[in-house]
Design brief:
The complex is a heterodimer.
Chain A lengths: L8 E3 L2 H17 L4 H20 L4 E9 L5 E9 L7 H4 L13 H8 L2 E7 L3 E9 L2
Antiparallel strand pairs in A: 1-2, 2-3, 3-5, 4-5
Chain B lengths: L5 E4 L2 E5 L6 H18 L3 E5 L8 H16 L3 E5 L3 H10 L7 E3 L2 H11 L1 H4 L3
Parallel strand pairs in B: 2-3, 3-4, 4-5
Antiparallel strand pairs in B: 1-2
The chains are: A alpha+beta, B alpha/beta.
The structure holds adenosine-5'-triphosphate and magnesium ion.
Chain lengths: 136, 124
């Protein structure tokens, strides 16, 4: 069973980051994730949505429920922006590295908190980060 | 933007977070608290996060900031009521919250402040 595709959630303000968290919470609960796993994916989404807003200059999050070949349910979120992109991916994925005033925890933390993590970025061509968490 | 209310109980300021925190709310809360500590001469701050279902790096950093800031103004901060799922997630996120005192619930948090500042406990 595949849930109907959700409208992308725009990310243009701090309130939108809260809305993304709520959409992810709803999808994660519907996919049957445990409370701890729901908390992990919502926290990861919060980090990535903030990056989209702060560094990407705004964008959107696409939240969907997914099913793998063995019928396992999960939730996948794709964060997209048309911002400046990330010049050095390895550096950005180094714990503690920040180009701003953060702690440099968002990307590495989101990677640890999720089962699948993909980063697509191009200088001048925007950034897409996709994360997935599966029900156990 | 919603604002988080700050209650004064004796010499303690109680911040009970009942809303989904967005970054600007967090920033304003830090400023409000600093101002209230100075104005009231409060000796303790309790941040009750019983109702908070996620703590990300921004919210976690607020706890550290408030703890350091209040210490500079002669007040102790205790964060109370962290949910187990939130604690597990914070560790995996990589946030240790070093320097932030915690207690399991409001009562234990009050007692913790009372123990380090005996005059708080009996309201003198
Ligand atoms: N969507 C994005 N567009 C452009 N650059 C980005 C994007 N997301 C992350 N980055 C870059 O990667 C760096 C690391 O991001 P990360 O989220 O790990 O840390 P941070 O946001 O700097 O700090 P924290 O998340 O701890 O507050 C950022 O400082 C920024 O330079
Ligand atoms: Mg970040």
């Amino acid at each position: 069973m595949t849930a109907p595709p959700q409208e992308p959630v725009p990310i243009t303000s701090g309130d939108d980051v809260v809305r993304v968290r709520q959409a992810v919470r709803t999808a994660a609960a519907a996919a049957g994730l445990s409370l701890v796993d729901q908390t992990k994916i919502v926290t990861a989404a919060s980090e990535l949505a903030r990056n989209t807003l702060v560094y990407g200059g705004g964008g959107h999050a696409r939240v969907e429920r997914v099913t793998d070949a063995r019928g396992r349910a999960g939730v996948r979120i794709a964060f997209g922006d048309d911002g400046p992109g990330i010049p050095d991916i390895d550096l950005a994925l180094t714990e503690g590295w920040t180009s701003g005033s953060g702690l440099g925890l968002g990307l590495t933390g989101a990677r640890r908190l999720t089962d699948e993590f993909h980063l697509d970025t191009e200088v001048g061509g925007g950034t897409t980060v996709t994360v997935t968490k599966w029900a156990r | 933007m919603e604002r988080v209310p700050i209650l004064k109980i004796g010499q303690i300021l109680l911040v009970s977070i009942q809303i989904d925190l967005q970054d600007q709310t967090v920033q304003v809360l830090q400023e409000d608290l600093a101002e209230r500590i100075v104005r009231t001469g409060a000796r303790g701050v309790i941040i009750d996060i019983t109702a908070v279902d996620i703590v990300d790096s921004f919210i976690g950093r607020m706890f550290s900031t408030i703890a350091s800031m209040s210490r500079l103004m002669d007040a102790e901060t205790v964060v109370v009521g962290m949910r187990p799922a939130v604690a597990i997630t914070l560790v995996e996120l990589g946030l240790s919250l070093g320097g932030v005192r915690t207690a399991l619930d409001l009562e234990k948090g009050m007692r913790l402040l009372g123990a380090s500042l005996p005059s708080l406990a009996d309201g003198r």
